[in-house]
Each structure stands twice: as C-alpha cells, then as structure tokens.
TrEMBL record:
It comes from Acidocella aquatica. This is Heavy metal-binding domain-containing protein. Belongs to the UPF0145 family. Pfam families: YbjQ_1 (PF01906). InterPro entries: UPF0145_dom_sf, UPF0145_YbjQ-like.
Length: 271
C-alpha cells in the first residue's frame, strides 16, 4: 500500500526554493558547518523531506531453549522502515531534489497501544548547483545518505558519491540458559558460548542483508556503517540488530573530485 503526499505536505513543498516558486525559502536540519560544506560541494539545500509510518508489529514466540531469528518481527521492522524511507524519497522527488543528505531513521512506541511503533525518516533534500544528474541513484531517483554534511563533502572530495542508504535487520531470540548451566557458572569467570554464538550470528545476518542491498544498488562499497541493537518492548531475550550505512560509487569523469572546491574556514569571535 502506498500513500499520496498529504495536502499540507504538498502545500509546504510548493513554498520551497527549488519548486516552481522561485521566491520560496529552503528548509534544512543542517548545522551551520554542514550547510557551508554542502554548498562548497556544489549542492544547494531545498527542503526537509519527511516520511512516516505507523506500524502494528505482530506477535511471534520463540523456543525457550533455542536461539533463532524471529522472521515475523524481522520482516515487520524492515517493511515499516522501507515505507517511511519511500515516502521521504517521494517528497524529495516532488521537490526536484537530486538526493537527500543526513537521513535519520527513528522509532518510537506510541503510548496508546504497545504494539504500535512509528517509524520516521527525515533528511534534507539537495540539488546540484549546475543541474548535473550524474549524482542520482541507479533508478534515476534521488540518492539517499545518512552521512552528515561534513562527511558528504569529504566523500565527494575523495572521489566518491553516495548512491543509496542501505540497511539490514534481524530480530533474534537468544536462548535462555538452563538451571543446571546457570549453577555451573556461579562465581566463575567463563564465556557463555551459546550467548556469544547467538549474538554473533544475529549481527552477521543484519550485515549480510545490508551488503545484499548495496550489491543490488550496484555500489562499490558501503561507508559509515553503524550497527544498532535494541528491544522494542518484546519478550526477554529478543533483540533487534540493525545495520545501516551509505552505499557509494566512484565519481564519473565529468564530476571529478578536483572540480570540488576546498572548504573555506569561517571563524566567529564572540565579544
């Protein structure tokens, strides 16, 4: 299921500088330093892009003594994030952006129902100052990146460009220890190998899925990888491993890194 952009979102996009209304303003969540370096990289911010999804996460029970992936929960967390991301990207397309910089994905539990989670994706839509379309994603739409404005400039200066924000999710049930096993380690320094193996496997699954997305985006590699661990009110011993990063490709010849100017340091002095 897809949603059209809300009426208020459409009205907001009409008032942006990059729209047909040239007298509009831009909006961004850039810091001053990020704003400076994004512009030095040859891009102009247009406006904030937002995508939201309220999702009912289903129920799945794992075996007490067995470590295993919770497929129902993994698919729910992945699908909900994808919906939020696609809606954010739709806003970027509507405002004519070439890409989105500084994407943040957040999740919050809604107070009125413990089974409901809201997934929010937000970033700043940018457009290349010279109208170069070589920065777009492989499908012709806006690129997405969770890199900061500073890292975005550094990446371009190194001769690479962002293609797509890629991610992998794995919700995993870590087996409980038996009573006898617990008694056997009382007062001892000893590795709990079954726990180690379970946590290791869950992280590997998340990272592998992120790599698969990068390959599908025809990227050369992934930078800025971060692995988050969290439990969203599930039963004990159930945890999500979430890997996220920005897939990158080398710049084309016509947008070689030596065309990107060095940043100018700006100093401010307070009286």
């Amino acid at each position: 299921m897809t949603l059209d952009l809300p009426a208020h979102a459409q009205e907001r996009l009409k008032g942006l500088r990059g729209s047909a209304h040239s007298t509009g303003v831009f909006t961004s969540d850039f810091s001053v330093n990020e704003f400076l370096l994004v512009r030095k990289a040859g891009f102009e911010p247009i406006g904030l892009c937002v995508g939201s999804c309220v999702y009912h996460v289903g129920i799945q029970y794992g075996s007490w003594s067995k470590s295993q992936e919770m497929d129902v929960l993994s698919k729910a967390m992945y699908h909900a994030r994808e919906l939020a991301m696609s809606r954010m990207r739709a806003e970027a397309s509507a405002m004519g952006a070439d890409g989105i910089v500084g994407v943040k994905l957040t999740i919050k539990r809604l107070e009125w129902d413990e089974q409901l989670l809201e997934f929010i994706a937000i970033g700043t839509g940018v457009v290349h100052g010279e109208g170069h379309k070589g920065f777009r994603a492989h499908d012709g739409g806006p690129f997405t990146s969770d890199l900061s404005g500073q890292d975005f400039w550094s990446l371009l200066h190194a001769g690479y460009r962002p293609v797509e924000m890629v991610m992998g999710s794995c919700v995993y049930h870590v087996a409980h220890r038996g009573v006898l096993s617990g008694l056997g380690t009382v007062g001892r320094n000893v590795e709990l190998e079954n726990f180690t193996a379970a946590m290791y496997e869950a992280r590997e699954i998340a990272v592998e899925r992120m790599q698969f997305e990068a390959a599908a985006a025809k990227a050369e590699g992934v930078v800025g990888v971060d692995i988050h661990e969290g439990s969203f009110g599930w039963k004990t011993h159930v945890i999500e491993f979430f890997a996220i990063g920005t897939a990158v490709l080398p710049l084309d010849q016509e947008i070689a890194p030596d065309k990107i100017p060095d940043p100018i340091m700006v100093l401010s002095v307070n009286d």
